[in-house]
Design brief:
By secondary structure, this protein is α+β, with helices and mostly antiparallel strands. The protein has eleven helices and 19 strands. It is an enzyme of class 3 (hydrolase).
């Protein structure tokens, strides 16, 4: 939400921020430590609406005290009853100081400095990695700042930046400046305000380049995250989110924006996203009454794998069987007898008949993204599956899961 109170309601002084400490991070009224919020106008700390509602009452009884921040560093406006996405430098500075004050440290500054010096002296020589074109480059160490429970985003951005084809493409893009600045590339930037004019491509380009630059400081992806907030409202705030879900939204938005722009779209409506991650899934359905086969092909950007039941069931006191990614892939592509509600409508039999279905990877992507389903719902209860899944660091053989000739291997290193 675009909040009109970011300037008037966020005036917390440095002296008030300095008083924020873990020991006093509790509601001033009921002393509850559950979900406290600090008023960005006066610094008073109160509990959220789902505890005893003292933060909401404070805002209602004190006109102008609309903005507050919780420990996840989300900013909320009680006047608009929405999370705030259009922040200014003042709020960003408040967030940094509040986050620093709420952290606890058991080490003294002197011991910390000594440790840093020892690590610097004993650090090994910087390693080199060899690119496919034969060139070498040093392994960089630039990291991403955690903006508050944003590990899900940082892990995806770091993974994408380590895909050579992805990094090289975005690093070679020109800086996408506003059209009115004389640029020949008609790409908008994040400085525009409408959703149609936001450029996710530009922010991903800057992050990708920043992660592979020399430097001792970390990189803040706050501009990219701000755009994500506006494009995908469900990611607003600083709560924990699903990394796979974020990746799907990010790649989809990048693909759409590149198609709409003058850069990056091929004549066959492909982009760098589909060139790297795009594959084809083949579904074979057989009517068991007349043995008629039906075949369908669908585009994919990843595969979501269940953990086979046989690895989850065990007797009390027994260890789980060792499960590998190959076991999950075999279950995913194995022959399945369909339930009656899913029977195939056979055009030869003119009715729904008992059927079987099997999946194959018809065309492997250049980079295969595998998502493991770590949650299971039983009787409306969600359970997390913590079973370790083994996988090879290299040489994953997908031959048994593909249609003959389904290896793609072009343009990006071939089905990594």
């Amino acid at each position: 939400m675009e909040c009109s109170h970011v300037s008037s309601a966020a005036t917390l002084s440095a002296d008030m921020i300095a008083k924020v400490r873990p020991e006093n991070w509790s509601c001033i009224v009921c002393r509850s430590h559950k979900k406290p919020w600090i008023c960005l106008k006066c610094g008073e700390i109160n509990c959220g609406r789902y505890v005893n509602g003292h933060a909401k009452r404070h805002a209602e009884e004190n006109p102008g005290h609309w903005l507050c921040m919780d420990q996840s560093l989300s900013v909320f406006c009680y006047r608009h009853d929405e999370f705030v996405v259009n922040e200014n430098d003042t709020i960003s500075s408040m967030r940094t100081e509040i986050q620093r004050n709420l952290r606890t440290s058991n080490s003294s500054p002197s011991s910390s400095n000594d440790t840093e010096e020892e690590e610097e002296d004993s650090s090994p020589p910087r390693k080199l990695i060899k690119l496919e074109n034969g060139d070498t480059c040093p392994v960089r160490t630039t990291g991403l700042q955690n903006l508050g429970n944003t590990c899900f985003m940082n892990s995806i951005l770091q993974s994408l930046s380590n895909i050579e084809q992805f990094y090289v493409y975005f690093s070679k893009l020109p800086s996408l400046r506003p059209a009115d600045a004389g640029s020949t590339h008609q790409y908008p930037t994040r400085r525009k305000t409408s959703l149609e004019e936001l450029s996710l491509v530009e922010e991903v380009r800057k992050v990708s380049c920043g992660l592979w630059q020399e430097g001792d400081s970390s990189l803040s992806p706050d501009s990219l995250f701000s755009i994500i907030w506006r494009l995908v409202p469900q990611f607003r705030g600083y709560q924990q989110q699903d990394a796979h879900e974020f990746m799907r939204y990010l790649l989809d938005k990048l693909h759409t924006e590149l198609l709409a722009g003058s850069l990056g779209a091929g004549s066959d409506n492909t982009t760098i996203v589909s060139q790297i991650f795009g594959g084809t899934l083949q579904s074979d359905v057989r009517c068991l009454a007349c043995c008629t086969d039906s075949r369908k092909h669908d585009p994919i950007l990843d595969v979501s794998l269940d953990i086979p039941d046989r690895f989850l069931s065990r007797r009390k006191g027994e260890r789980h069987q060792d499960c590998s990614i190959l076991d999950c892939l075999a279950s995913y592509t194995g022959l399945e007898t369909l339930e009656e509600t899913e029977w195939y409508y056979c055009h030869r039999c003119k009715t729904r008949e008992p059927s079987t279905k099997r999946l194959f990877l018809h065309a492997l992507p250049n980079v295969l993204c595998i998502h493991l389903k770590r949650f299971r719902f039983t009787s409306c209860v969600r359970t997390k599956l913590s079973l370790p899944i083994g996988f090879p660091l290299s040489g994953l053989d997908m031959g048994q899961f593909t249609v003959a000739g389904g290896r793609r291997g072009g343009g990006g290193g071939g089905g990594r």
